[in-house]
Amino acid sequence: MTNILEIKGVNKTFGGLHALRDVNLEIYEGETHAIIGPNGAGKSTLLNCCIGKLIPDDGSVTFNGNNMIGVDAHDINHAGMVRVFQTPEIFPELSLLENVLIPALAKRDGTFKFNPFGDIFNEKEIREEAMATLAEFGLEGFSEDHAGSMSRGNKRRLELAMGLIQKPKLLLLDEPTAGMARLDTNNTIDLLKTGKMREMTKVIIEHDMHVVFSLADRISVLARGHIIATGSPEEIKNDPKVKEAYLGEGDHE
Ligand code: ADP
Ligand code: MG
Fold this sequence. Notes:
By secondary structure, this protein is an alpha/beta fold. The protein has a domain of 73 residues. The protein contains 10 helices and 10 strands. The strands form 2 sheets. A 6-stranded mixed β-sheet has the order 6-7-8-3-9-10, with helices on both faces. Strands 2-1-4-5 form a 4-stranded antiparallel β-sheet, with helices on one face. The longest helix has 14 residues. The radius of gyration is 19 Å and the shape is globular.
């Protein structure tokens, strides 16, 4: 089993608040790993410590064997650790095709530079790749439509397409179904289970137990900044510590 991401002994405090306490976590290449835990447990803080948005007080974060602490967020993204945000981060005024071209071009050039004298959106090869990525999510028929005019479900598909076109080695999803109705939630589960998304190594932060148990190969439970259990869905379901700290609350959020 190859570890793609290794988190060792990570602590993070905000003033007097100990948000992460000695967090140890290994993500295996190819797995879908869910991180669950009550609100305020430290899930987003942990993710932010991995993608360069926060710097842990101590401990190490290693991605593909390389230290990620103190590395610029842009360089971490470039190394292949890509986060899909909680609220859709799309460009509503642009077409769906343009929306997927932006991260594709940013990835290719390192930085995204507008060239006022050239039409960067018209290069055949990258347009074809963008169209194929839209097709992966059933969006090819909407390629010329404004992203802002799409349904919530299609916006989420577009966001995943914008993540996928960056060819991530590890995709981090922070509550991909937050605020969704059951139908959209089930559609999102299907999207994450099919095609290229299925094979991709994923870390999913999620409140919805239906989503977690539908997708995860392994689950880690975070409670008050500490990982209290990591295991298969079956192991987590039956772990008394987990029941006490989280599942037993009756309210799964
Ligand atoms: P989760 O994502 O599991 O709901 P968070 O990681 O957002 O939890 O938050 C963990 C704890 O750290 C919470 O008590 C939260 O209020 C606190 N926290 C998170 N970010 C900050 C920050 N930038 N400054 C101060 N406190 C923060
Ligand atoms: Mg959070």
